[in-house]
Design a protein that fits this description.
Distance between the termini: 22 Å
Number of strands: 17
Order of helices and strands: HEHEHEEEHEHEEEEHEEEEHHEHEE
Shape: globular
Strand order of the largest sheet: 5-6-8-7-12
Helix content: 25-40%
Number of helices: 9
Structural class: alpha/beta
């Protein structure tokens, strides 16, 4: 254990009552993938309760822990001065034994192209309620499939977190792509005493669309130009007269070859919506740009304040916040419903969902009475 962990163990009785209560979680429910593991492990550390989770990722073609999930659990065990039982690749059942959240510098290397952004999803809430500042050195894939791109986290999620009173900072040291990863980001987190509730119910009008298309490695720069050009043409046809600025660029600080595009739409009330796509073999560059543009168009036309991919990520912050939060969601994805299920199962947070369309999975008002978690460790 680090010195900070040892000190925090001694202070534990005064700061945070340790509970031997088990959190029992069935990882096959609803989404049945890594999200249940990430959210439940974060709540375990935040509430200092032992977590036993079984049937991990049971709904996936290759169930059990992959490198990314195991690395995330090991990171949380270190951050919480705790331990992890049965932590091995492919494990379908683990127990996380947290003690107390210490600050300091922590490193986590997935050693594959597994997403560092998914590490952030579980580690960030814990870092916000740690005893002191946290610096997380995270290595793996920065722009990975089946996960938010690091640029989406920077441009969409971080602005959302400011509404909660949190201001984490991310520095992209090096990008990493499939198949080897080896990207590197640094996450700086200052702890909070509590998180504020949020009210995001007025979408306003879209005032501008911005973004960039990138290439790395040996991929020619024209690929970035073609992605940017196609995305802008698609968006300009849909929203004539709107300010649209999408620039191509070469990312030199990167390991291997990679391409992608990240777009954001900003509204008159300060909402930020996102759309993105990664380059694929045999998928022409213009089609990648169009794919990202179409995702952003869906988010804009849904008339919500928070898009599909951000909504499930902020559920944990709504659950931890003090007071009543109210958010106009673009849609109710299975990931969002899963995040709400986990929050209500493991905490005293109470959510209500009001569908605003005939489609129960469409635009909805999501409200939450949070648990008002207090950080007594950071004095």
């Amino acid at each position: 254990f680090s010195f900070a962990c040892c000190v925090n163990r001694l202070l534990l009785s005064r700061h945070l009552a340790f509970s031997t209560t088990n959190m029992e979680v069935d990882g096959s429910l609803l989404e049945g993938g890594g999200q249940i593991l990430r959210n439940s492990s974060a709540y375990s550390c935040l509430l200092s309760q032992r977590l036993h989770i079984q049937k991990i990722r049971a709904n996936r073609s290759k169930p059990g822990l992959k490198a990314q999930h195991l690395t995330g659990l090991q990171l949380l065990a270190r951050m919480s001065c705790g331990s992890l039982d049965n932590g091995s690749l492919g494990a379908s059942e683990v127990t996380l034994n947290p003690v107390t959240l210490s600050g300091g510098v922590f490193e986590a290397d997935i050693k594959t192209a597994g997403s560092v952004c998914l590490l952030i999803q579980s580690a960030l809430p814990c870092a916000l309620f740690s005893a002191s500042e946290c610096q997380l050195e995270l290595k793996g894939g920065t722009n990975a499939i089946m996960a938010p791109q690091i640029d989406y986290t920077l441009d969409v999620l971080l602005p959302l977190l400011k509404h909660f009173g949190a201001s984490p900072r991310i520095n992209v040291v090096r990008r990493g792509y499939f198949p080897k990863g080896q990207g590197h980001v640094t996450l700086h987190v200052s702890p909070v005493s509590q998180l504020d509730s949020i009210t995001l119910v007025d979408r306003g009008e879209v005032s501008a669309i911005d973004g960039f298309a990138f290439v790395s490695g040996t991929i020619p720069f024209r690929v970035a130009r073609d992605m940017a050009k196609a995305a802008k043409a698609k968006l300009a046809g849909k929203y004539p007269g709107l300010s649209i600025n999408i620039t191509p660029r070469e990312e030199k600080a990167a390991f291997g070859n990679g391409t992608g595009i990240v777009l954001t739409a900003t509204t008159s009330t300060g909402c930020v919506l996102g759309g993105s796509a990664l380059g694929e073999r045999r998928l022409p560059a213009p089609d990648v740009g169009i794919k990202a543009a179409e995702e952003l168009i869906r988010a804009i036309d849904a008339q919500g304040c928070v898009d599909e991919h951000a909504m499930d990520q902020i559920i944990i912050f709504m659950a931890l916040a003090k007071g009543h939060s109210k958010v106009l969601a673009s849609c109710m994805s299975l990931h969002t419903r899963t995040a709400i299920y986990v929050a209500e199962s493991l905490t005293d947070a109470k959510f209500t969902i009001t569908a605003l369309t005939d489609d129960q999975d469409g635009r909805s008002m999501v409200e939450c009475d949070g648990i008002a978690l207090v950080n007594n460790l950071n004095n």
